[in-house]
Amino acid sequence: MRAAYVERLGPVDAIRYGELPDPVPGPGEVLVRGIATAVNRVDTFVRSGLYPTPVPLPLVLGRDLVGEVVEPGTSGPAAGSPVWSNSLGHGGRQGAASRLACVPFTIGPSWVS
């Protein structure tokens, strides 16, 4: 898959764009095809190393993602379902600036008015 990533933390010129292996969802994750992503200020802090957090290298950048489920896993939403995430690209997770991303999936509270 095509992705924006870094092989080392540092300045903006460390960012690369190219092919990386497709991610494989683990327990509690769904595989999502990205439709849109944003550049979040936190992304620059993580990429530069100013926000110390465990990251796998190479690290796909990007925290925010809107997309659709490709592989729902055992308890995720059905394939084709729209999803949103804002917790990628730090804390040991790969980011959203790629064609495919593994997104942690949890069911939140239902709000009824």
List the main descriptive attributes of the protein structure presented here:
113 residues; mainly beta; NADPH:quinone reductase-like Zn-dependent oxidoreductase; Quinone Oxidoreductase, Chain A, domain 1; single chain; NADP; 7% helix; four-stranded antiparallel beta sheet; 1 helix; three-stranded antiparallel beta sheet; GroES-like_sf; ADH-like_N
Low-pLDDT residue spans: 109-113
- The pLDDT mean sits at 90
Task: Tally the helices.
Answer: 1
Number of domains: 1
CATH superfamily: Medium-chain alcohol dehydrogenases, catalytic domain
User: Strand percentage, roughly?
Assistant: 25-35%
CATH class: Alpha Beta
Domain Alcohol dehydrogenase-like N-terminal: 26-88
InterPro entries: ADH-like_N, GroES-like_sf, Zinc-ADH_QOR/CCCR
Pfam families: ADH_N (PF08240)
Keywords: NADP
Structural notes for this entry:
Residues 26-88 form the Alcohol dehydrogenase-like N-terminal domain. It comes from Sphaerisporangium siamense. InterPro entries: ADH-like_N, GroES-like_sf, Zinc-ADH_QOR/CCCR. The model is unreliable at 109-113 (pLDDT under 50). It contains one helix and seven strands, in the order E-E-E-H-E-E-E-E. The protein has one domain: Quinone Oxidoreductase, Chain A, domain 1. A hairpin with an 8-residue loop joins strand 1 and strand 2 (15-19). The termini are far apart. Helix content is 7%, strand content 35%. The chain has a four-stranded antiparallel beta sheet with strand order 6-5-3-7, with no helix packed on it. A three-stranded antiparallel beta sheet has the order 2-1-4, with no helix packed on it. By secondary structure, the chain is mainly beta.
